[in-house]
Amino acid sequence: MKAHVGGETFAQASLLANLRSSVEPRNRPLSPKRPPTELAGLADLFPYYAGFSFEWARETLLSASGGLAGVVLDPWNGSGTTTLAAQMAGMPSVGVDLNPVANIVAHLRANIAPASLLTSPPNADICAEDDPLLAWFSPPTASRLRSWSSLATSSPQGVRALALVALFRVVRELTRSFQGSNPTWVRRTSPDRPQVAIESEELDALLLKEQRDISKRLESHMRVGVRPILVNSSAKALPIASDSIDLVLTSPPYLTRIDYAVAYARELAVLGTDILANRSLREHLMGTTLIRPVDARLGAIYGPTANQLVKAISEHQSKASRGYYLKQACQYLNDLVDSLDEISRVCKKGAVAIFVVQDSYYKDAPIRLADICEEEANLRGWTTTEKRPFEVSRTLTSLNKAAKLYPKGKVSETVLTLKRV
Ligand SMILES: C[S@@+](CC[C@H](N)C(=O)[O-])C[C@H]1O[C@@H](n2cnc3c(N)ncnc32)[C@H](O)[C@@H]1O
Questions:
Q1: 260 CA → ligand 1 middle, Å
Q2: Is the CB of 254 under 6 A from ligand 1?
Q3: Which of 42, 147, 347, 389 stands 20 to 30 A from 33 (CA)?
Q4: Of 270, 319, 281, whose CA–CA distance to 137 is shortest?
Q5: Which domains are present in the chain?
Q6: Protein residue with least CA distance to atom 8, ligand 1
Q7: What DSSP line would sit under 164-194, residue for residue?
Q8: Which one of 34, 52, 98, 373 would you pick to mutate in the ligand 1 pocket, going by the greatest count of ligand atoms within 8 A of its CB?
Q9: Are 365 and 260 in contact (CB under 8 A)?
Q10: Using CA positions, which residue lies closest to atom 7 of ligand 1?
């Protein structure tokens, strides 16, 4: 499918003009980091790992659009913060993400019409022996959850998104004890961590209440504008026509070994995917810790900062640096440059791209991701118009005992603004 998005209507132009006038001038620039308590843009419906702030996205889109309701793209759209901000600003948008869980949340946030609630499915024992939900739930509970998810999946889009996000939230809550201090690592059933068992009636009541609560929350939030096009696809193969995008606002996965499939293993299990049995999704997510079958491009094909990183990792004295870690970093860099090629293809001349990227460390070697992205984009015909760093206080490295062994400096998140020449 190729997404074609139309131009600005009179209604959109006047909506944009109104919204623009509601952006207040600030003494200090707003940070892209999402405050944990953010309610704007329905961020609380399903706080997504590494999601950025809705307020920041809205203000950034409005000031970067230069008064025109051009077409917005987020190639790593996550929970749809960019696409919702574009929708609220009257701008047509396309959001792409490879993780189907992210797309469902983005769909729910973009719904304009109130969705009807899904009622309890009939009782049926439909849980297969290898159902991925059995990693956390007893067979009867997994079976009841499977009945709900099958009914939700076959429902129309609005009902589907509401019921599935309710399922995600309830499953998360019921398996809270499986979550460690690292938000992206989820344990599974083990002898000292038994499966969760809950009566079907109690589970049904929880799911109905959750749908009602979400629905109320949706009603309190006015959504207008052009509904975004949301696609479950890879940033490396954008299903979008060439020269069709005016503005990119995005945040790629960082080189911090975050495995989005593991982080959302329970929600993917609700959708019927077992990430341990089916490596495909996990393997193709950018930043994955799995190594795909040999990629011929191993280093020395990037700009100077990426090449320095490749050299630092391959010469590092620690175990597996020259093997596994070098392959993982090159796989990440290859995904990044392939995605930048695609983003460059779909953008018009004069398009603006705003990237939020976070630096990190490999052991004691800095990973200067902002510089890497800037150089790789410059090599592809983008010029830098602004590079603004924000200090980050808590990173995943600060949660990892082994990583703490190496001395490190402060880490920053950078908002990088580029223009396609
Ligand atoms: C930093 S998050 C984006 C968060 C988003 N800005 C928000 O506010 O929710 C990066 C996203 O990239 C997605 N992703 C990873 N590999 C991808 C790929 N190859 N193509 C498209 N999306 C991918 C992940 O699923 C994740 O949702």
A1: 8
A2: no
A3: 347
A4: 270
A5: 10-113+221-420 (3.40.50.150)
A6: 51
A7: HHHHHHHHHHHTGGGB-SSTT-B---BTTBP
A8: 98
A9: no
A10: 51
- pLDDT for position 91: 93
What is the pLDDT averaged over residues 247-267? 92
| Distance from residue 174's CA to the centre of ligand 1 (Å) | 26
Exposure of 152 by Cβ count < 10 A (0-12 exposed, 13-18 middle, 19+ buried)?
buried
Residue nearest ligand 1's atom 18 by CA: 234
347-358 and 245-250: which strand pairing? Answer: parallel
CB of 286 closer than 6 angstroms to any ligand 1 atom = yes
DSSP H or E stretch at residue 208: helix 200-219
d(CA 109, CA 117): 16
Task: Single out the residue of 110, 417, 73, 402 nearest to residue 239, CA to CA.
Answer: 73
Please choose, from the candidates 79, 35, 38, 86, the residue with its C-alpha nearest in 3D space to the C-alpha of residue 60: 86
| 163 exposure class (CB count in 10 Å sphere: 0-12, 13-18, 19+) | buried
Q: Higher confidence at residue 121 or residue 408?
A: 121
414: left (phi over 0), alpha (psi -120 to 50) or beta: beta
Q: How many residues does the chain have?
A: 421
Question: What pLDDT score does 10 carry?
Answer: 47
Number of Cβ within 10 Å of residue 219's Cβ equals 9
Interval 107-163: pLDDT, tens: 999 987 777 899 988 887 788 999 999 999 999 999 999 999 999 999 998 899 999
Which residue CA neighbors atom 12 of ligand 1 most closely? 76
Query: Ligand 1 centre and the CA of 67: distance in Å?
Result: 28
Q: How far is the CA of 14 from the centre of ligand 1 (A)?
A: 32
State the DSSP string of 222-276: ---SPPPEEEE--TTS--B-TT-EEEEEE-PPPSS---HHHHTHHHHHHTT--TT
Query: For the segment 100-109, what is each residue's pLDDT rounded down to a tens digit?
Result: 999 999 999 9
The pLDDT of residue 295 is above 70:
no
pLDDT digits (tens, 9 = 90+) for 37-85: 888 888 888 888 888 999 999 999 998 987 677 999 999 999 999 999 9
Tens-digit pLDDT profile for residues 205-252:
999 999 999 999 888 776 677 899 999 999 999 999 999 999 999 999
CA of 63 to the centre of ligand 1 (A): 24
